[in-house]
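Support reply, case 0932

Customer input (verbatim):
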Amino acid sequence: MGVTTVTDVPGAPADVLHTLFHSEQGGHEQVVLCQDRASGLKAVIAIHSTALGPALGGTRFHPYPSEAAAVADALNLARGMSYKNALAGLGHGGGKAVIIGDPGTLKSEELLLAYGRFVDSLGGRYVTACDVGTYVADMDVVARETRWATGRSPEHGGAGDSSVLTAFGVFQGMRASAAHLWGSPSLAGRKVGVAGVGKVGHHLVEHLLDEGAEVVITDVREDAVRRVLDRHPRVTAVPDTETLIRIDGLDIYAPCALGGALNDATVPVLTARVVCGAANNQLAHPGVEKDLADRSILYAPDYVVNAGGVIQVADELHGFDFDRCKAKAALIHDTTLEIFARAKSDGVPPAVAADRIAEQRMAEARTR
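Our regenerated output:
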Protein backbone atom coordinates (compact mmCIF):
# COMPACT_ATOMS: atom_id res chain seq x y z
CA MET A 1 0.00 0.00 0.00
CA GLY A 2 1.37 3.40 -0.93
CA VAL A 3 1.60 6.36 1.43
CA THR A 4 -0.64 9.36 0.83
CA THR A 5 0.47 12.75 2.09
CA VAL A 6 -2.14 15.48 2.20
CA THR A 7 -0.29 18.82 2.24
CA ASP A 8 -1.98 21.99 3.49
CA VAL A 9 -5.50 20.81 2.70
CA PRO A 10 -7.36 20.47 6.01
CA GLY A 11 -10.44 18.32 5.68
CA ALA A 12 -9.71 16.87 2.24
CA PRO A 13 -13.03 16.09 0.51
CA ALA A 14 -14.30 12.54 0.87
CA ASP A 15 -14.45 12.02 -2.91
CA VAL A 16 -10.76 12.91 -3.21
CA LEU A 17 -9.77 10.51 -0.45
CA HIS A 18 -11.90 7.79 -2.04
CA THR A 19 -10.10 8.33 -5.34
CA LEU A 20 -6.72 8.11 -3.60
CA PHE A 21 -7.37 4.88 -1.77
CA HIS A 22 -9.67 3.09 -4.21
CA SER A 23 -8.19 4.02 -7.57
CA GLU A 24 -7.89 1.16 -10.02
CA GLN A 25 -4.43 2.49 -10.87
CA GLY A 26 -3.22 1.75 -7.32
CA GLY A 27 0.26 1.18 -6.00
CA HIS A 28 1.36 4.81 -5.77
CA GLU A 29 4.05 5.68 -3.27
CA GLN A 30 2.88 9.17 -2.44
CA VAL A 31 0.23 11.70 -3.40
CA VAL A 32 0.53 15.32 -2.29
CA LEU A 33 -2.37 17.77 -2.38
CA CYS A 34 -1.01 21.31 -2.56
CA GLN A 35 -2.82 24.56 -1.85
CA ASP A 36 -1.65 28.17 -1.73
CA ARG A 37 -4.59 30.45 -1.03
CA ALA A 38 -2.75 33.68 -1.83
CA SER A 39 -2.11 32.70 -5.46
CA GLY A 40 -5.11 30.43 -5.95
CA LEU A 41 -2.92 27.36 -6.47
CA LYS A 42 -4.54 23.97 -6.07
CA ALA A 43 -2.37 21.12 -7.33
CA VAL A 44 -1.84 17.39 -7.05
CA ILE A 45 1.59 15.78 -7.22
CA ALA A 46 1.43 12.00 -7.66
CA ILE A 47 4.51 9.81 -7.29
CA HIS A 48 3.85 6.32 -8.63
CA SER A 49 7.31 4.76 -8.31
CA THR A 50 10.87 5.69 -7.42
CA ALA A 51 12.20 2.14 -7.95
CA LEU A 52 14.39 3.26 -10.84
CA GLY A 53 15.17 6.71 -9.45
CA PRO A 54 13.45 10.05 -8.72
CA ALA A 55 9.99 10.30 -10.24
CA LEU A 56 9.95 12.34 -13.45
CA GLY A 57 6.90 13.70 -15.23
CA GLY A 58 5.33 16.93 -16.41
CA THR A 59 2.88 19.39 -14.89
CA ARG A 60 -0.57 19.59 -16.49
CA PHE A 61 -2.61 22.80 -16.02
CA HIS A 62 -6.27 22.06 -16.70
CA PRO A 63 -9.77 23.16 -15.53
CA TYR A 64 -10.84 19.83 -14.04
CA PRO A 65 -14.55 19.48 -13.20
CA SER A 66 -13.71 18.37 -9.64
CA GLU A 67 -10.80 17.78 -7.30
CA ALA A 68 -11.45 14.04 -7.50
CA ALA A 69 -11.12 14.18 -11.30
CA ALA A 70 -7.79 15.98 -10.93
CA VAL A 71 -6.51 13.36 -8.48
CA ALA A 72 -7.63 10.54 -10.76
CA ASP A 73 -5.85 12.09 -13.74
CA ALA A 74 -2.66 12.63 -11.75
CA LEU A 75 -2.68 9.01 -10.58
CA ASN A 76 -3.22 7.69 -14.08
CA LEU A 77 -0.60 9.93 -15.66
CA ALA A 78 1.99 9.19 -12.94
CA ARG A 79 1.63 5.47 -13.45
CA GLY A 80 2.05 5.94 -17.20
CA MET A 81 5.27 7.86 -16.62
CA SER A 82 6.70 4.97 -14.57
CA TYR A 83 6.19 2.67 -17.55
CA LYS A 84 7.44 5.22 -20.07
CA ASN A 85 10.61 5.99 -18.13
CA ALA A 86 11.33 2.30 -17.51
CA LEU A 87 11.12 1.45 -21.20
CA ALA A 88 13.12 4.54 -22.17
CA GLY A 89 15.99 3.18 -20.10
CA LEU A 90 16.04 6.20 -17.79
CA GLY A 91 17.15 6.25 -14.18
CA HIS A 92 13.79 7.66 -13.19
CA GLY A 93 10.52 6.49 -11.79
CA GLY A 94 7.16 7.95 -12.67
CA GLY A 95 5.36 10.99 -11.35
CA LYS A 96 2.98 13.64 -12.57
CA ALA A 97 1.47 16.86 -11.31
CA VAL A 98 -1.76 18.62 -12.21
CA ILE A 99 -2.72 22.20 -11.42
CA ILE A 100 -6.46 22.72 -11.18
CA GLY A 101 -7.85 25.67 -13.12
CA ASP A 102 -7.95 27.43 -16.45
CA PRO A 103 -4.35 28.38 -17.33
CA GLY A 104 -5.65 31.22 -19.47
CA THR A 105 -7.10 33.02 -16.44
CA LEU A 106 -5.47 31.52 -13.32
CA LYS A 107 -1.82 31.15 -14.29
CA SER A 108 0.44 33.78 -12.74
CA GLU A 109 4.04 34.19 -11.66
CA GLU A 110 2.94 34.03 -8.01
CA LEU A 111 1.11 30.73 -8.60
CA LEU A 112 4.04 29.15 -10.45
CA LEU A 113 6.47 30.20 -7.74
CA ALA A 114 4.19 28.68 -5.09
CA TYR A 115 4.01 25.49 -7.10
CA GLY A 116 7.81 25.46 -7.36
CA ARG A 117 8.05 25.60 -3.57
CA PHE A 118 5.83 22.53 -3.26
CA VAL A 119 7.98 20.64 -5.77
CA ASP A 120 11.07 21.66 -3.84
CA SER A 121 9.58 20.47 -0.56
CA LEU A 122 9.77 16.90 -1.88
CA GLY A 123 13.55 17.07 -1.87
CA GLY A 124 14.08 15.66 -5.36
CA ARG A 125 11.68 12.72 -5.12
CA TYR A 126 9.74 14.38 -7.97
CA VAL A 127 11.23 16.19 -10.98
CA THR A 128 8.79 18.25 -13.03
CA ALA A 129 8.63 19.45 -16.64
CA CYS A 130 6.11 20.83 -19.16
CA ASP A 131 2.83 19.19 -20.10
CA VAL A 132 -0.55 20.34 -21.42
CA GLY A 133 -1.11 23.93 -20.31
CA THR A 134 2.47 24.59 -19.20
CA TYR A 135 5.38 25.79 -21.29
CA VAL A 136 9.11 26.41 -21.24
CA ALA A 137 8.62 29.92 -19.88
CA ASP A 138 6.55 28.49 -17.02
CA MET A 139 9.31 26.04 -16.08
CA ASP A 140 11.77 28.93 -16.01
CA VAL A 141 9.59 30.51 -13.31
CA VAL A 142 9.12 27.26 -11.36
CA ALA A 143 12.89 26.72 -11.46
CA ARG A 144 13.40 29.93 -9.49
CA GLU A 145 12.08 28.03 -6.45
CA THR A 146 13.45 24.55 -7.09
CA ARG A 147 16.33 22.80 -8.82
CA TRP A 148 13.93 19.95 -9.69
CA ALA A 149 12.38 21.64 -12.75
CA THR A 150 13.34 20.68 -16.30
CA GLY A 151 12.07 21.67 -19.74
CA ARG A 152 13.53 25.14 -19.22
CA SER A 153 14.72 27.54 -21.89
CA PRO A 154 18.31 27.41 -23.18
CA GLU A 155 18.81 30.89 -21.71
CA HIS A 156 18.14 29.41 -18.27
CA GLY A 157 20.27 26.30 -18.68
CA GLY A 158 17.58 24.10 -20.18
CA ALA A 159 17.04 22.20 -23.40
CA GLY A 160 14.01 24.11 -24.66
CA ASP A 161 11.38 22.57 -26.94
CA SER A 162 11.24 18.77 -26.58
CA SER A 163 8.96 18.20 -29.59
CA VAL A 164 11.90 17.69 -31.96
CA LEU A 165 13.13 14.57 -30.18
CA THR A 166 9.58 13.38 -29.50
CA ALA A 167 8.95 13.34 -33.25
CA PHE A 168 12.29 11.65 -33.90
CA GLY A 169 11.40 8.88 -31.44
CA VAL A 170 8.02 8.29 -33.07
CA PHE A 171 9.76 8.08 -36.43
CA GLN A 172 12.09 5.41 -35.00
CA GLY A 173 9.04 3.52 -33.73
CA MET A 174 7.57 3.63 -37.24
CA ARG A 175 10.81 2.28 -38.73
CA ALA A 176 10.74 -0.60 -36.24
CA SER A 177 7.10 -1.30 -37.06
CA ALA A 178 7.90 -1.41 -40.77
CA ALA A 179 10.84 -3.74 -40.16
CA HIS A 180 8.68 -6.09 -38.09
CA LEU A 181 5.73 -6.13 -40.47
CA TRP A 182 7.28 -5.71 -43.90
CA GLY A 183 10.87 -6.86 -43.36
CA SER A 184 12.52 -3.47 -43.92
CA PRO A 185 12.68 -0.31 -41.80
CA SER A 186 12.38 1.87 -44.88
CA LEU A 187 9.22 3.99 -45.12
CA ALA A 188 9.87 4.98 -48.74
CA GLY A 189 6.64 4.69 -50.70
CA ARG A 190 4.54 4.00 -47.60
CA LYS A 191 1.37 6.06 -47.18
CA VAL A 192 1.30 7.59 -43.69
CA GLY A 193 -1.63 9.49 -42.22
CA VAL A 194 -0.76 12.03 -39.51
CA ALA A 195 -3.65 13.29 -37.37
CA GLY A 196 -2.47 16.45 -35.65
CA VAL A 197 0.38 18.51 -37.11
CA GLY A 198 1.08 20.78 -34.19
CA LYS A 199 4.29 20.88 -32.15
CA VAL A 200 5.24 17.22 -32.67
CA GLY A 201 3.26 16.31 -35.77
CA HIS A 202 4.82 18.81 -38.14
CA HIS A 203 8.33 17.60 -37.19
CA LEU A 204 7.21 14.02 -37.83
CA VAL A 205 6.02 15.02 -41.30
CA GLU A 206 9.52 16.31 -42.06
CA HIS A 207 11.09 12.95 -41.15
CA LEU A 208 8.56 11.05 -43.24
CA LEU A 209 9.09 13.20 -46.33
CA ASP A 210 12.86 12.92 -46.00
CA GLU A 211 12.39 9.14 -45.95
CA GLY A 212 10.30 9.23 -49.15
CA ALA A 213 6.92 8.45 -47.61
CA GLU A 214 3.60 9.68 -48.99
CA VAL A 215 2.02 11.84 -46.28
CA VAL A 216 -1.63 12.71 -45.65
CA ILE A 217 -2.49 15.08 -42.81
CA THR A 218 -5.40 16.52 -40.89
CA ASP A 219 -5.78 18.89 -37.96
CA VAL A 220 -8.66 20.75 -36.34
CA ARG A 221 -6.60 23.93 -36.70
CA GLU A 222 -6.57 25.23 -40.25
CA ASP A 223 -3.43 27.29 -39.64
CA ALA A 224 -1.50 24.15 -38.61
CA VAL A 225 -2.51 22.42 -41.85
CA ARG A 226 -1.70 25.48 -43.93
CA ARG A 227 1.79 25.76 -42.39
CA VAL A 228 2.62 22.21 -43.53
CA LEU A 229 1.05 22.57 -46.99
CA ASP A 230 2.80 25.88 -47.68
CA ARG A 231 6.15 24.30 -46.92
CA HIS A 232 5.46 20.89 -48.51
CA PRO A 233 3.06 21.09 -51.47
CA ARG A 234 3.24 17.33 -52.09
CA VAL A 235 1.55 16.63 -48.74
CA THR A 236 -2.19 15.96 -49.00
CA ALA A 237 -4.72 17.24 -46.47
CA VAL A 238 -8.12 15.77 -45.62
CA PRO A 239 -10.87 17.51 -43.63
CA ASP A 240 -10.92 15.34 -40.52
CA THR A 241 -9.62 12.24 -38.77
CA GLU A 242 -12.71 10.24 -39.69
CA THR A 243 -11.75 10.68 -43.34
CA LEU A 244 -8.07 10.01 -42.71
CA ILE A 245 -8.50 6.63 -41.02
CA ARG A 246 -10.68 5.35 -43.89
CA ILE A 247 -8.25 6.18 -46.72
CA ASP A 248 -7.63 3.25 -49.07
CA GLY A 249 -4.03 2.07 -49.10
CA LEU A 250 -3.08 3.73 -45.80
CA ASP A 251 -0.08 1.89 -44.39
CA ILE A 252 0.50 3.73 -41.11
CA TYR A 253 -1.79 5.85 -38.95
CA ALA A 254 -0.08 8.34 -36.62
CA PRO A 255 -2.38 9.87 -33.99
CA CYS A 256 -0.54 12.97 -32.77
CA ALA A 257 -3.31 14.97 -31.13
CA LEU A 258 -5.76 14.00 -28.38
CA GLY A 259 -5.87 10.72 -26.47
CA GLY A 260 -8.49 8.04 -26.98
CA ALA A 261 -7.95 7.98 -30.75
CA LEU A 262 -8.27 4.18 -30.81
CA ASN A 263 -11.77 3.29 -29.69
CA ASP A 264 -14.83 1.22 -30.50
CA ALA A 265 -15.76 3.54 -33.37
CA THR A 266 -12.38 4.01 -35.03
CA VAL A 267 -10.73 0.60 -34.81
CA PRO A 268 -13.35 -1.25 -36.92
CA VAL A 269 -12.95 1.19 -39.85
CA LEU A 270 -9.21 1.80 -39.66
CA THR A 271 -7.51 0.84 -42.94
CA ALA A 272 -3.90 1.17 -41.80
CA ARG A 273 -1.77 -1.88 -40.99
CA VAL A 274 0.24 -0.01 -38.34
CA VAL A 275 -0.65 2.52 -35.64
CA CYS A 276 2.32 4.54 -34.37
CA GLY A 277 1.87 8.10 -33.16
CA ALA A 278 2.84 10.71 -30.59
CA ALA A 279 -0.48 11.14 -28.76
CA ASN A 280 -0.68 9.93 -25.17
CA ASN A 281 -3.25 7.39 -23.99
CA GLN A 282 -4.33 6.34 -27.47
CA LEU A 283 -6.23 3.27 -26.27
CA ALA A 284 -9.64 4.54 -25.14
CA HIS A 285 -10.20 1.63 -22.75
CA PRO A 286 -8.82 -1.81 -21.88
CA GLY A 287 -9.57 -4.30 -24.62
CA VAL A 288 -8.87 -1.99 -27.56
CA GLU A 289 -5.38 -3.50 -27.84
CA LYS A 290 -7.01 -6.90 -28.45
CA ASP A 291 -9.41 -5.41 -31.00
CA LEU A 292 -6.41 -4.08 -32.94
CA ALA A 293 -4.65 -7.46 -32.77
CA ASP A 294 -7.80 -9.24 -33.92
CA ARG A 295 -7.80 -7.02 -37.03
CA SER A 296 -4.08 -7.72 -37.59
CA ILE A 297 -3.23 -4.06 -36.96
CA LEU A 298 0.22 -3.64 -35.42
CA TYR A 299 0.14 -1.18 -32.53
CA ALA A 300 3.36 0.49 -31.38
CA PRO A 301 2.57 1.45 -27.75
CA ASP A 302 2.33 5.22 -27.45
CA TYR A 303 4.32 5.58 -24.25
CA VAL A 304 7.21 3.71 -25.84
CA VAL A 305 7.52 5.62 -29.10
CA ASN A 306 6.77 9.11 -27.76
CA ALA A 307 9.48 8.97 -25.07
CA GLY A 308 11.88 11.29 -26.90
CA GLY A 309 10.64 14.29 -24.93
CA VAL A 310 11.16 12.71 -21.51
CA ILE A 311 14.60 11.51 -22.62
CA GLN A 312 15.44 15.15 -23.35
CA VAL A 313 14.20 16.59 -20.06
CA ALA A 314 15.94 13.84 -18.08
CA ASP A 315 19.21 14.70 -19.78
CA GLU A 316 18.80 18.32 -18.76
CA LEU A 317 19.55 17.32 -15.16
CA HIS A 318 23.07 16.34 -16.25
CA GLY A 319 23.81 19.26 -18.57
CA PHE A 320 21.91 18.97 -21.84
CA ASP A 321 23.65 17.48 -24.85
CA PHE A 322 21.48 17.17 -27.96
CA ASP A 323 23.60 14.54 -29.70
CA ARG A 324 23.60 12.36 -26.58
CA CYS A 325 19.81 12.67 -26.34
CA LYS A 326 19.28 11.91 -30.00
CA ALA A 327 21.41 8.77 -29.73
CA LYS A 328 19.31 7.62 -26.78
CA ALA A 329 16.05 8.45 -28.58
CA ALA A 330 17.26 6.40 -31.57
CA LEU A 331 17.17 3.35 -29.28
CA ILE A 332 13.37 3.59 -29.33
CA HIS A 333 13.71 1.63 -32.58
CA ASP A 334 15.33 -1.31 -30.77
CA THR A 335 12.96 -1.14 -27.80
CA THR A 336 9.96 -1.26 -30.12
CA LEU A 337 11.34 -4.33 -31.86
CA GLU A 338 11.95 -5.94 -28.46
CA ILE A 339 8.31 -5.35 -27.55
CA PHE A 340 7.06 -6.88 -30.79
CA ALA A 341 9.26 -9.93 -30.23
CA ARG A 342 8.00 -10.31 -26.65
CA ALA A 343 4.40 -9.95 -27.83
CA LYS A 344 4.91 -12.73 -30.35
CA SER A 345 6.61 -15.08 -27.88
CA ASP A 346 4.01 -14.47 -25.15
CA GLY A 347 1.05 -14.54 -27.53
CA VAL A 348 -0.21 -11.14 -26.35
CA PRO A 349 -0.77 -7.71 -27.95
CA PRO A 350 2.23 -5.34 -27.98
CA ALA A 351 0.63 -3.08 -25.35
CA VAL A 352 0.52 -5.98 -22.91
CA ALA A 353 4.09 -6.99 -23.75
CA ALA A 354 5.31 -3.43 -23.16
CA ASP A 355 3.64 -3.33 -19.76
CA ARG A 356 5.24 -6.64 -18.80
CA ILE A 357 8.74 -5.49 -19.74
CA ALA A 358 8.32 -2.23 -17.81
CA GLU A 359 6.94 -4.03 -14.76
CA GLN A 360 9.81 -6.51 -14.88
CA ARG A 361 12.39 -3.70 -14.94
CA MET A 362 10.76 -1.95 -11.97
CA ALA A 363 10.46 -5.18 -10.01
CA GLU A 364 14.11 -6.05 -10.61
CA ALA A 365 15.14 -2.57 -9.46
CA ARG A 366 13.25 -2.98 -6.19
CA THR A 367 15.16 -6.16 -5.35
CA ARG A 368 18.60 -4.64 -5.92
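We compared this against your earlier run and they match. Two observations from our side: DSSP finds 15 helices and 13 strands in the chain. Residues 5-83+92-152 form a domain with the Rossmann fold fold (CATH 3.40.50.10860). Please reopen the case if you see a mismatch on your end.
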